[in-house]
Amino acid sequence: MSEHGGNIIGVAQQYGLPAGELIDFSANINPLGAPARVKALIKDSLADIEKYPDVEYRHLHQAIAKAQQCDYTKVIAGNGATELIYAVARYLNPKRALLLTPGFAEYRRALQQIGTEIIDYPLAAETGFQPDLRLFNTLAATKPDCVFIATPNNPTGLMPDNQFMQSLVAYCESQGISLIVDESFIDFLPDNRGLIPQCAVTIHLYVLRSMTKFFAIPGLRLGYLVSGNAAGIAEMKNRREPWSINAFAARVGEILFDEHDYISATHQWLKSQQYYLWNQLSTFPELTVWPPAANFLFFRCNQPNVDLWHALLKHRLLIRHCKNYAGLDERYYRIAVRSEWENQRLIAAMQQVFTYG
């Protein structure tokens, strides 16, 4: 099984299904689709395929810095947030790193590639899959060089307490521990600015953002990283391969922050559909559902004889099995919040699964 969601073609080929008939709940992409202005911009910029993009991506970095109210020298854009996970890992080159589990697979892969010793800090169902003050005891005892944490977390979709995160930033800064905070899904939380403002007063904090999920451009790939460590940002820019961001993605990134109507429409859609899915899933006695913060839901199936992944695939619905996340087993699943009719179809299919097996 793929390490990631969105593997429609692979699943379709493996099970002999038409890919076009599958509804993908496994990838957490905004179902509103890319903004209309994005598609128009690409059509109007077709001649750009005949030119190299600016190797420095000046306009893109300026647009990000303006939107995040930070200095241009503290920003690096990337071919999705994933490129920057690997870039920051290579730059920091930590001997020991602490990872919260379950978590996004690419943190571990990036660290394994450079031979880092990994300390797993398990999040458990008993504590609501949330980190608490015990994490500080582990940090003091194990003394890692860096920590990766996702807010909201993937796959649980849960958001740590704001005061906890502020304390974590302060602790890591005081101890010289590099703290990489992955905010790839934070744009789905309308009232949360995240930790980028803290980069103005820190040098050990690195904040990752993805534009892929919120703006529905996974085929373009675009993300960025902000840090108060301007020298580190410059070093990452110098080390990476040239032209890693294609010309279309770079141009699109310059305008996305101005898509205020699209941003508002996304928050409006999510408010209604996130609640609908959570409310409906919570009615199934066979499930334990954690309250979502982002555009996906995390739950456990407590009925041992039900394989939801295969059962829903028969209904042409692809969900994300979480058994290949460290710390989780075959009972755990993640589903994206999609359009109203798709969400209704999912609930109807689950009613059939639990009624008829």
What does this structure look like?
It contains twelve helices and 13 strands. It is α/β, with parallel strands linked by helices and 357 residues long. It folds into two domains: 124 residues, Aspartate Aminotransferase, domain 1, CATH 3.90.1150.10; 212 residues, Aspartate Aminotransferase, domain 2, CATH 3.40.640.10. The strands form three sheets. A seven-stranded mixed beta sheet has the order 2-8-7-6-5-3-4, with helices on both faces. A hairpin with a 5-residue loop joins strand 9 and strand 10. Helix 4 runs parallel beside helix 5 and helix 10 packs parallel to helix 12. The relative contact order is 0.17. The mean pLDDT is 94. This is threonine-phosphate decarboxylase. InterPro entries: Aminotransferase_I/II_large, CobD, NHTrfase_class1_PyrdxlP-BS, PyrdxlP-dep_Trfase, PyrdxlP-dep_Trfase_major, PyrdxlP-dep_Trfase_small. Pathway: Cofactor biosynthesis; adenosylcobalamin biosynthesis. It is an enzyme of class 4 (lyase).
